[in-house]
Amino acid sequence: MLDLTNARRIGIIGGGTVGWLAAIALRRIFDVDVDVTVVEAPTVFPLGPGEGGSLNLTDTLCRNGLDVDVFIGEADATHKLGVLYENWRGGGISDHYYRMFGGSGIPEIECRVDGFFPLLSARIAAGENLHTYIPGFELITRRASQNEIDELLATGASGLYPSYHFNDAEFERCLRRVGLARGITSRATVVHGMRLDDRGHVSALQLGGEELEVDFAVDASGFARVGLGTVFNMHWCSFANVLPTDHAIIFELEPREPPLQCVTRATAMKAGWMWEAPLNRSIRAGYVFSSRHADAATALAELEHQYGYRVEAKHELSLDQGYFSTAWVNNFVALGTASGFVEPLEAAPAAHTFEQLRNLECVLANGSGIVPAQAIEAYNSANARCWTGVRDFLRLHYDCKGIDTPFWRDLAGAELPEGYADLRACFQKRTPRFIDIQPYVGSGWQSLFQQIDWISVAAPLGVVPPAAACAELRRLSAESQTEVQAYVDRLKGTITKISSTRGWMH
Question: Which CATH class is domain 2-75+167-240+321-392?
Answer without folding.
Answer: alpha beta
